[in-house]
Amino acid sequence: MTTASHDHTTAVLIVGGGITGLSAALFLARRGVRPTLVERHRSTAIQPQARAFNPRSMEIYRTFGLEEQIREHESLLADMPEMLGADTLIGAQRFRVDMLAEVRPGDISPTEWAMIDQDELERLVRAHAERAGADVRFGTELVSFDAAPQGVTATVRELDSGLESRIRADYLVAADGNRAGIRHRLGIGADGPGVVGHAAHFLFDADLDEALRGRRFLLAYLDHPTTGTALVPLRQPGRWMLGVPFHPQQGDGVEDFTAQRCIESARSAVGIADLDVALVPPAPGWSRMVADVRIGASVAHRYRVGRVFFAGDSAHVFPPTGSFGANTGIADAHNLAWKLAAVLHGHAGPALLDTYEAERRPVAQTTMDTAMRILTARHHAVGEEATRIDEVAMAFGYRYQSTAICTEPGTPDQPLEDPRAPSGRPGLRAPHVWLDRAGTPVSTLDLFTGNFTLLAGAEGAEWVDAAKAVGATLELDLDSHRIGADLHDPEDRFPHAFGITSTGATLIRPDGFVAWRARTTPERPERQLHHVLTQLIARNAGNR
Predict the structure, then answer these.
(1) Which of 75, 157, 342, 460 has the most CB atoms less than 10 A away?
(2) pLDDT for res 323
(3) Residues of the chain whose pLDDT is less than 70?
């Protein structure tokens, strides 16, 4: 072991280089905060993991200019988004459904699902994060850390050299995965059933044309060799991943999955007793063929301890059904990044950071409950019962309630609202409305470029003037647009979607959520906007 003689200082230390940590690094760097990320693995993911990223995640990446490149790297499997349930692959089906047919956003979003494997997405996000200035260090593990009221001091080790160094950070983001090492070191437990199952995952090559019968799918739930078996096609034609549940409480372990048992499991799942099966390692040079994958469901009791924040699988674990895990982690990173940046730049008071847990933890609780219902349905239900879930509402309709939202009286006390009938209420994602800028279609969502944004009605010129004045007074970048004047609203949808009149205004946060609105123009709009904004960002005379 070698100890370095120098320290490194950073505003934010991110531990974990999965999709949540890398996204957090990108979002912070694009907001002028240069984070340091450490990840003990030497590379990004080597297996697909998540394979479908919902339109809300794509809206987020669209804001940072990644959408087009993500589309260029979509999987060759993107044209076959079916999911099926069956006894065996060659046997009788319980259900078969287009995974996206019922969850396409339609008029709700300017973008669509992205069928990109997580390993591909991680490589893209890492490249953009580094290009934006993030200090990304793979092959570097966290050895220890001390979280004091004034900041965090961490010791990290480069795996190849053994070199240790200290990193001093204002804040630490723990995105260290479902084993949640940092969270457990801080003594924070979790609610939920915990580990609900184990599965042995392995890869194999086989010609399954006979069993496929022309079907193309992204995922198949099979009842053999045991209920809950999952078969997934990989990018390389003829290569498959099989997940077979096993039960440690009954004395079964992943070490019992010998090569022969894996081959017999694949044959049983497909339904062809003499199928030619060749096992392959998950990566070139790997000797371990079988992975023990834990299926869990839990939500951390807390999302913050002092200057340490938990995000992604460190904060919540969901069963893989529903494609919720990675998408929820991306939204965690998006919510936290703008708040950290605002506080670090002196634009907001430290109390703003308390709203991260207040907003994201209830979303995780609702998501976990939903994922557990889906898990049971996919393994046991038949027909529509296996897929009945409003994933559009899950992606777009969750509501925040915190001091960073001016919740209106009469707001329904429910975690989700139907985004197909947008209300524009504070706490909800801002509705998508197509506008026209000199003949070019522009979504309202494209107007949110990282600052607070005020959208006023066609007769709301006073609001635009007020936004300029308040932005100058608070030394805060505050964008403003008059819809119907600066930007054409060809279908006159904006006032109804956002719940204001032509003289009203709505204030959108940097993460695209409605923070506050005024249906009409008051006598002194500048005074009202100043009061609201200072409240939302926990600003007072002592903050700067």
Answers:
(1) 460
(2) 78
(3) 1-6, 48, 76-81, 99-106, 378-389, 541-544
Distance, in Å, from the CA atom of 87 to the CA atom of 85, rounded to the nearest integer, reads 7
CB-based contact 511:335 (threshold 8 Å) = yes
Tokens of 275: 């199928």
Measured CA to CA, the distance from residue 443 to residue 435 in angstroms comes to: 6
- Candidates 327, 311, 417, 419; CA nearest to 371 is 327
In contact, 374 and 322? CB cutoff 8 Å: yes
Please give the Cα distance from 432 to 238 (Å, whole number): 41
193, 202 Cβ separation under 8 angstroms: no
Dihedral, CA atoms, 511, 514, 515, 517, nearest 10 degrees? Answer: 150
Closest by Cα among 124, 116, 117, 121 to 74 = 116
Could you tell me which of 4, 39, 2 has the C-alpha nearest to residue 135?
39
Please give the pLDDT value at position 95. Answer: 85
Lookup: tokens for 454: 């005020």
Residue 543: its pLDDT value, please? 47
Instruction: Please give the structure tokens belonging to residue 299.
Output: 């939500």
Asked if the bond preceding 225 is cis, omega within 30° of 0, the reply is yes
Q: Please list the residues that pair with 151 across neighbouring strands.
A: 148
CB 126 within 8 A of CB 116: no
Q: Is 507 helix (H, G, I), strand (E, B) or coil?
A: strand
Coil, strand, or helix at residue 256? helix
* Per-residue model confidence (pLDDT) at position 104: 63
The reported pTM is 0.92
DSSP H helical ranges for 44-180: 55-63, 67-72, 118-131
DSSP structure class, residue 467: H
Residue keyed to tokens 């893989």: 320
Is residue 110 classed as helix, strand or coil in its secondary structure?
coil
- For 153-208, what is the HEC assignment? EEEEEECCCCEEEEEEEEEEEECCCCCCHHHHHCCCCEEEEEEEEEEEEEEEECCC
Q: Interior CA angle at 386 toward 381 and 391, to 5°? A: 155
Measured CA distances, 357 to 155, 302, 308, 315, 340 (Å)? 26, 7, 12, 10, 13
What tokens does 14 get?
A: 């991110």
Instruction: Give CA–CA dist 50/235, Å, rounded.
Output: 13
Closest CA to 269 of 324, 322, 238, 230: 230
> Residue holding tokens 């070139």?
284
245/265 Cα distance (integer angstroms)? 11
pLDDT at 541: 44
What is the C-alpha end-to-end distance of the chain, expressed in Å? 43
Going by the DSSP 8-state scheme, the letter that residue 231 receives in this structure is E
